[in-house]
Amino acid sequence: MKSLKNKVAAAAGFISARIPAAPSVGLLAGTGLGASFDRMDVGVSLNYQDIPDFPVSTVPGHQGRFLFGKLGGHNVMAMQGRFHYYEGYTMAQITLPIRVMQVLGVKVLMIVNAAGGINPLFKVGDIMIIDDHLNLTGNNPLIGPNIEAWGPRFPDMAAAYDPKLISSAETVGLEHGVGLKRGVYAGLPGPSLETRAEIRFLRTIGADAVGLSTVPEVIAAVHGGIRVLGLSVITNMNLPDKPESCSVEAIIGVAEGATSRLSVLIEGVLEALSHEAR
User: FRET label pair with 257: which of 4, 14, 33, 243, CA 20 to 30 Å apart?
Assistant: First the structure.
């Protein structure tokens, strides 16, 4: 059986042989958010199922492919669709794409997701900058032997979401009239959505939004020295005293409605990165 390191090497080698240049930026879109990268000048598209040892997306709203090309003057690799713990994947499988990005040379990761709003000041359609998270999945992608070439045994998570990238996103939002919230994202295993009692608990411990992804990928990215910007689209509100039913179709619809604003933010942050490098 292949080790995780060998699986990453095989996937990275397959991809590297098919793209013209090493990427410096990684983009990862969740449910219904794949169109956030529509303005990308795509040179190569690869289906996950064609990449050695790569998982396959099984959730509606996840196209399941890598795009490679230019966006905002940067060489970018974008994931249209991610993997979730509730699909039955291991933490190693969920974070394998992040390790592939790391091996290929990615230094900045922008990760976007669909989330349920817990903060009563939020509303459906808001975009929240993630400034911290709560790992409530009951697991961690770094459990097990540490691969020293990838990162330290005990990575510091005090600033998991890069302060400079957050500041850039806020500036872009102000310049382009994209209203932004800021808050803490709680990551749960799923797939059942939260009970009213669980929402009250999450609010008590400081969560502003909740979802079923993102946290494992961010932990792996921080471990690998990749700077992270996290953005959550609030696709439904979880108010325990005013519960409302929620469907996957409705979540996808709200997420798709936010893609144009996300595109503005992503391109603006990439432009700021270009200035930062000068």
Answer: 243
